[in-house]
Write a structure and sequence with these properties.
Distance between the termini: 60 Å
Structural class: mainly alpha
CATH class of the largest domain: Mainly Alpha
Shape: elongated
Number of helices: 23
Strand order of the largest sheet: 1-2-3
CATH superfamily of the largest domain: Clc chloride channel
Order of helices and strands: HHHHHHHHHHHHHHHHHEHEEHHHEEHH
Number of strands: 5
Radius of gyration: 32 Å
Number of domains: 3
Largest sheet: 3 strands, mixed
Helix content: 55-70%
CATH topology of the largest domain: Clc chloride channel
Strand content: under 5%
Length: 612
């Protein structure tokens, strides 16, 4: 009796243990992502302090240059009273480029450039692996580059810092490549979400920026969300809560304003083309220069200083000027100079081998050009465009969408950074136009088209697609074949065999039901033994253990059956009776059908699938 009760309770006990295992596993992974958030948040705190300290020492104390800060980010060090000196500002970026270039190319050459591309490449091409020294080198080199006047953003360095720690932790824990990629992406989201005080956008950015098509790495969003929230809270505890930028209460209430927004979108798309071509044109130019690599950022820094000599607003981060543009405090000439000059200084700084991100400059460039368009339309149509500052915010989102191919996370980014959720509708409108118009070029060269094209998912997607396709979808490809009566003498079959190209032969009983099957290989032993030909009928050669499939089976199962037994063709039988033959499905037809489905999913059009 006790034995029976124990057996009855067994399903309940198993469910409880499974639930316990799942909870323990979820708790373990949550702890990992919280830890990534803590480290990434700490990295953001340290990096922010180094940027503040470097700006105070280099630009303020040495050159007397004190660019404004955005409203949500105050200087933590007391400004000096040193007089502004353009000549020091001319050579300061070159000195910073020389020092940061030596550090990068001496200790971690993969830390050069804007950083996000390196993290994307590590995700797709390197199984999520990054050397543990990269975050340290990237932190120091980027802080030097950006605080000596180099034009760049903070998201690239901090993305590589967070990603580097996620990769390091997964490697030390001996996790799989898939798990290491997820932890690397969680580090990206945590770093970016914390330093820009946009945790939701950080999580979405880590998932979306990996691909140039409108695709997301879905398994990354939740881990990156956990890490991003933790990192954001830690950063805000040190530097204060709130958004990076402050903005008036913008409202979209007039549909006629969509006309000027269309003009803004087209201008931003064209400007993004100029930016990307300038960025990689300078990169190609410096790649062709035959000098040691660590000297190249110094040359780029000197060119940056030459632009900054006349346009100081284009140096360093420039967020404070974007803040002033939001409140409509800058003239059109200043905004235009900021937008175009920032393209040059960013290209010279980063494409020469300097260390810094491209999101920050893109926000400033897009905001400045948005301010230009907004002010022009405000002068022409004051009753429709009532507040040019709204165009600054929408311009921020539109321009980075055009260069990054990441519209969704960019819209959320700018909304979180500026607390301007009332502008979601025009932002979505402008970003959609920018994405469609400018998707042929992008600043992130290591993006892949979609999950289908990612080496990180090699093999996975084939199984996913094959599991979704059933044999019934291929019924037009199931071929009718000649069947062989079980009592056919072998000599009669020899005559039939000489006239056919068929390789697999179902054997039928007197009622027309399949009792076995054999292949052309199976008849060799009899073909070369003529002394027994008169004694053999075809049921003697056929195997009765028939491996078959039905219309309801998925193609992954079918392909496994073919592969395990090295079979090129499989009988398709009735669901109700496995001895009723419907036809034969060939491996070549199955693979061809799969390839057509992949081409269709990749954008090859409906024509391929219709062939099946």
């Amino acid at each position: 009796m006790a034995q029976k009760n124990r057996i009855r309770q067994l399903p309940v006990i198993l469910k409880q243990r499974i639930r316990t295992v799942n909870i323990a596993r979820a708790g373990k992974w949550s702890l990992f992502f919280v830890l990534i958030g803590i480290i990434a948040g700490t990295g953001s705190v340290i990096f922010q302090y180094l940027c503040q300290l470097g700006s105070h020492v280099f630009m303020d104390w040495m050159a007397g240059y004190r660019p404004p800060a955005p409203a949500g980010e105050q200087h933590i060090l007391v400004p000096t009273a040193r007089e502004f000196n353009r000549w020091i500002l001319l050579f300061l970026p070159a000195a910073g480029g020389l020092l940061s270039g030596w550090i990068v190319y001496r200790f971690a050459p993969e830390a050069e450039g804007h950083g996000t591309d390196a993290a994307i490449e590590a995700y797709h091409e390197k199984g999520g692996f990054m050397r543990s020294r990269v975050p340290v080198v990237k932190t120091i080199a980027s802080a030097i580059t950006l605080t000596t006047g180099g034009s760049g953003g903070r998201e690239g360095p901090i993305a590589q810092i967070g990603a580097g720690f996620g990769s390091f932790m997964a490697t030390k824990l001996r996790l799989s490549e898939r798990e290491r990629r997820i932890m690397l992406a969680a580090g990206i989201g945590a770093g970016v979400g914390s330093i820009f005080r946009a945790p939701l956008a950080g999580a979405l950015f880590a998932s979306e920026v990996l691909y140039s098509d409108p695709d997301f790495e879905s398994e990354v969003i939740i881990p990156a969300g956990i890490s991003s929230v933790v990192a954001y809270c830690l950063f805000s505890l040190v530097y204060g809560w709130g958004t990076l930028f402050h903005s008036p209460e913008f409202r979209f209430q007039n549909p006629l304003e969509l006309g000027p927004y269309i003009v803004l979108a087209l201008v931003l798309a064209g400007l993004s083309f100029v930016y990307v071509k300038s960025f990689y044109g300078v990169h190609d130019l410096f790649s062709a220069i035959r000098i040691p690599n660590h000297f190249k950022p110094a040359i780029g820094g000197l060119l940056t200083g030459m632009v900054g000599f006349y346009l100081p607003t284009t140096l360093a981060f420039g967020y404070g000027y974007a803040q002033q543009a939001i409140f409509d405090e800058l003239a059109i000439s200043v905004l235009l100079g900021l937008a175009l000059g920032k393209i040059l200084t960013t290209s010279f700084t980063i494409s020469s081998g300097g260390s810094g991100g491209v999101f920050g400059p893109s926000v400033v460039i897009g905001g400045a050009m948005g301010g230009v368009i907004g002010k022009l339309f405000h002068q022409l149509l004051p009753g429709i465009v009532t507040n040019p500052g709204a165009f600054v915010v929408v311009g921020m989102a539109g321009f980075f969408t055009a260069v990054s191919n990441a519209p969704i996370s960019t819209i959320i980014f700018v909304s979180e950074m500026t607390n301007s959720y009332e502008l979601l509708l025009p932002s979505l409108f402008v970003c959609s136009i920018c994405y469609v118009t400018a998707r042929r070029w992008g600043i992130y060269q290591k993006q892949v088209k979609s999950r289908v094209a990612s080496p990180a998912h090699a093999g996975e997607f084939m199984v996913d697609v094959l599991q979704l396709i059933k044999v019934r979808d291929l019924m037009p490809l199931v071929r009718k074949v000649e069947t062989i009566p079980e009592d056919m003498p072998f000599q009669a079959f020899k005559e039939f065999f000489s006239r056919t190209k068929q390789h697999y032969f179902p054997v039928m009983d007197e009622n027309g039901r399949m009792m076995g099957i054999f292949s052309s290989t199976d008849v060799r032993s009899v073909l070369f033994a003529p002394e027994i030909e008169n004694l053999v009928v075809m049921r003697d050669i056929a195997t009765t253990e028939v491996i078959s499939t039905t219309a309801s089976e998925d193609l992954n199962t079918v392909l496994q059956k073919m592969t395990v037994r090295n079979i090129d063709s499989l009988p398709v039988v009735s669901e109700d009776d496995e001895r009723v033959l419907l036809g034969m499905l060939h491996r070549r037809d199955l693979i061809a059908f799969y390839n057509r489905q992949i081409r269709r999913l990749r954008g090859g059009g409906p024509g391929e699938s219709s062939e099946a």
